[in-house]
Write a structure and sequence with these properties.
The complex is a heterodimer of chains A (110) and B (893). With 110 residues, chain A is of the alpha+beta class. Chain A is built from four helices and three strands; from the N terminus they run H-E-H-H-E-E-H. Chain A has a three-stranded antiparallel β-sheet with strand order 1-3-2. In chain A, strand 2 and strand 3 form a beta hairpin. Chain B is of the alpha+beta class. Chain B folds into four domains: 68 residues, no CATH class; 177 residues, no CATH class; 308 residues, no CATH class; 208 residues, no CATH class. In chain B, the strands form three sheets. In chain B, strands 1, 2, 3, 4, 5, 6, 7, 8, 9 and 10 form a ten-stranded mixed β-sheet that branches. In chain B, strand 2 and strand 3 form a beta hairpin. In chain B, helix 14 runs antiparallel to helix 15 and helix 17 runs antiparallel to helix 24. The longest helix of chain B has 38 residues. Chain B is elongated and about 135 Å long. At the A-B interface, helix 3 and strand 3 of A face helix 1, helix 2 and helix 4 of B.
Chain lengths: 110, 893
Amino acid sequence: MADRQTNLLQGTLDLLILKSLALGELHGLGVARRVEQITRGTFQVKPGSLFPALYRMEEAGWLSSSWGASENNRRAKYYKLTAAGRRQLDAETSEWKRIAVAIAFALQAT
Amino acid sequence: MSPFRRTPSRLRSALRNLFTRSRVERELDADVRAYADLLADEKVRAGMDRSAARRAALVELGGIERIKDEVREVRSGALLETTARDVRYAVRTLARRPGFTVVAVIALALGIGATSAIFSVVSGVLLRPLPYRDPDQLVVILHEGRNPVAPANYLDWKRQSSLFSSFGAAEYWSGTVTGDAPERVQGLKVTSDVLAMTGVSPLVGRLFRADDDMPTGNRPLILSWGYWQRRFAGNRDVLGTSLVVDGSPYTVVGVMPRGFDFPMFWATGVQMWTPLALGARASSRQSQSLRLFARLERGATVRAAQSQMTTIAANLEKAFPGTNPAVTVTPLDTMVVGDVRPALLVLLGAVGFVLLIACANVAHMLLARASARQREMTVRLALGASRTRLLRQLLTESVVLALAGGSLGIALARLGLRTLVALAGTSLPRADAIGLDLGVLGFTTVLSLLTGLAFGLLPALRVSRSEMSEALRDGSRGSTEGARRSRVRSVLVASEIALALVLLAGAGLAMRSFAALRAIDPGFAPRGVLSAVVTLYGTAEAAPGRREAFYTSMLERVRQLPGVESASLINHLPIAGDIWGLQFLVEGRPRPQPAEMPRSTFRVVYPGYFTAMRLPILRGRDVAETDRVGARRVVVVNDFFARRSWPNEDAVGKRVTFNPTAESPTWFTVIGVVKNDVQSDWSAPPQEEVFLPYLQEREYLESGGGHVGYMTLVVRAACAGASRCNPGSLAPALRDAVGSLDRSVPVTDIQTMDEVITGANARPRFTVVLLATFAVVALVLAEVGIYGVVSYAVSRRTHEIGVRVALGASPSAVVRLVIAQGMRVVGVGVAIGLVGALVASRLMTQLVYGVRVTDPTTYAAVAGMLAAVALVASYIPARRATRIDPLVAMRAD
């Protein structure tokens, strides 16, 4: 039970992180804030889920990272999408839409 | 930039994570810290003051270390990495408790090392196939499983059988190679099929061909690798060289490769082969001197071959009565290792027990530690470590322990193996195939891993499953430990004791059996006797009419040597020499069917043999100088012969013949009766044996070939006392005495009678020494186990004992209390062990002599010994318990 929940969340989380990076590179806190912003506060990504996800996605080759200075001059690690990451975003987006439509139909069925 | 560029992303990450671990770790740390800082900045901007913002950020983060841990878990290569971390942690933990670690590693090293050593013997001797092509097709064909076959039978069998693709014969041969230094060389006469059927190619030259089987003037010779090295320094130009063996020229045609030995169960150490050209002997059904070797046709079974051979022999027996006793077809493998198999398997089982005991020991040492570490584990559980994580880490710890034990064990096995092979001597076939090879190392590694899991699993499960509340309740107070846990440890110790008892019983039986073997009276007095084979065949001294003169003057010289008490000659030394038999018939008895004609061992002796050997003459007299050709034929018989042939009568003066089927048999008058002596097998019951005077044997004196061309010199040293007797030191003087008569006469096989007997008992000694060693190790381990359990119990019961003392319990009552607890466990272990030993004893049946495998004395003795040892082991902690100060004990609570 617990596992399934994590998986569902993980799939969603991946999509949200990919989406949040679609416009440009961000550091870890930036990703968290951006996700919050684009989901209008529905999803608040905790660092305990964020970091494992970032590292996992980087290892999968979807993200690349580099060190840079933040707006108030702190050294931080910036993440950005790779080509593979963009492809993954497209794939997950259309997959998500397909599921959303299907579920919407399912819920409308009488 | 990276050597991993072409590898897929995940693999690349895994490799980077593993190889640049510290950099990756630093980066992760900086990344998480940057997050915390940025979060704090955010809060400052929102109006918090800096230090409060920092604290809040850290709280929101939920612990930098925890986050890092979670990232580590998802990273590629995480499993490997956590394992590496667990191993490092395990090593550190173990290093902090050197006492525990050293004891555990030594116990495991003893178990694993001994098991590896025995396994390498089993693997080399029993498991590895014989070094021939398709060795399971090779069979040995003999009479009654061991007796050689007559030439005419061989030829008939070969012609009539249809299930063999080749069928050859071999005959023992030893020849004197003359030249600069005359030497006796062991050889084998073989038909051309024999070497070919092994599938081994010669290193140099060729094997024998079918046309070599015909007797011609040209005798080909094939050399062993060792003899080629020794005599020709490995020179490849040896082909075509001529060697003079027993006075006839032989031509070297080939050299066998290094280590070649066939057939291994007989005639080992052969150095040269020549064709067995039967010639006129081909029609003989009497002289049984051939051992037959055959390769089964593809698809033919030993059973089918056996039944065909039985039919063939039965038909021949009808045509030639008395010439075809039972024929046996035995796989070569069985002949080579068949009789050592039970001993090795018993030893392997025994050593497995030692390992199990070591495991049990370490397991309950770990259990004891587990209780001590309960707090550590509880705290880690409370801090969020998962149980699987803890289990994995604890198992890693025990596997590390086991691998350390395994490495030390390998070193022990290396040492032990050398001793073992030396101890086994010639009693172990294929000793050169024994070694710590890759197979054994693999076995040891797997064994160590399994061992680690075996002894680690129980304590690890226990700890990782522990309930927090129980741990806090149990761990912090010095009360009586949980009944369940204490039961587990008692079961472990009881099993140790049971296993140790089974081992002790086996060792006890082997020792009693060995003592019985030692107590066998060989008939003669072996101490102080030196023997040597003196061969005239192939030298000028072998000329008819010169043999007696040579031996007589040789004996004269030897007897005059300082330190020599007496000396004489016999053709075949007891135990070490051949056993030749003759049919016989007692005068005045009806002549039985040829097949039922009784047979007796016969030996040929010089006067004075019985004196030199101190084989007592019970009645009558020794053979004398005057018993020579032309005089009345005489014979000395052994007591068994006399009693069997003339029950309740004096044998002296009676007559017996050794050619009972002849028209006019030659009658021999019995002039003396000697005590029964050991003939060949050390523990065999007595059989008929007769001694004929050399001086009356025309074959020995005049005619006859190599098989009668040598005699064995026996010399009794004059010993000051029975304890200080070293007949071996006479060897150089013997050589000189013989050499002073004729330099070309070789003196070989110099050995003391004690050495001969030691060699004959090598296998039982091997078994008994190993079993006893294992039993002692088991006893020590079991003792440590009992001691551990009782002292642990005492330390857990300090409070209770303190209360008892405070309430007036006397020291002896405390001792009784503690010992009773220990002995209950011992009692259960002994009871189970006795049953186990009785069951296992059946495996010992083939290994013991002179003692029943259910011998109650042995069982009672070992049970008593174990109980005594256990008593001592629990007495020490019991004594300590009496010194418990009630005040201290209760304050500790």
